[in-house]
Amino acid sequence: MPFVNERTEDGQWQTIDRDRGVILLYDGRLGADHPYNFFFKFEDATLRVEAFRRLQTQSNNKYLITWNIVGLHIPEHLADKTEEIKDLLSEAFDVCGFLFNRKYAEAVNVEFSAYQI
Q1: pLDDT, one tens digit for every residue, the chain (117 residues)
Q2: Which residues face 67 on adjacent strands?
Q3: Distance between CA atoms of residues 22 and 110, nearest Å
Q4: Residue 16: domain span
Q5: Total structural domains within the chain
Q6: What is the pTM of this model?
């Protein structure tokens, strides 16, 4: 089963791939000048992810969404899986769209400006 958006039991939104055991969970935002905060559950670790979002209106009244990952905190024991983690994050953000809804998205791009191991 691929990634899907769903609510957790406590009402939070998440993008989850049950087959691979990977979850992208929204954790809030401090304000308009700050990135969106997420937790990314991968294997035995929960990674912190910070991302800015850009919306561009397309001619069909849908949006081109770009997520710019500005913080990705990968534990040292997973450093050799950095590319796999980035690929899974790109898939998860593509399904997430914006506000866990891809209905009005024409396309979703994911950029990695910075990350930390």
Answers
A1: 599 999 999 988 899 999 999 999 998 888 888 999 999 999 999 999 999 999 998 878 889 999 999 999 999 999 999 999 999 999 999 999 987 888 888 899 999 996 665
A2: 53, 110
A3: 17
A4: 6-36+50-112
A5: 1
A6: 0.90
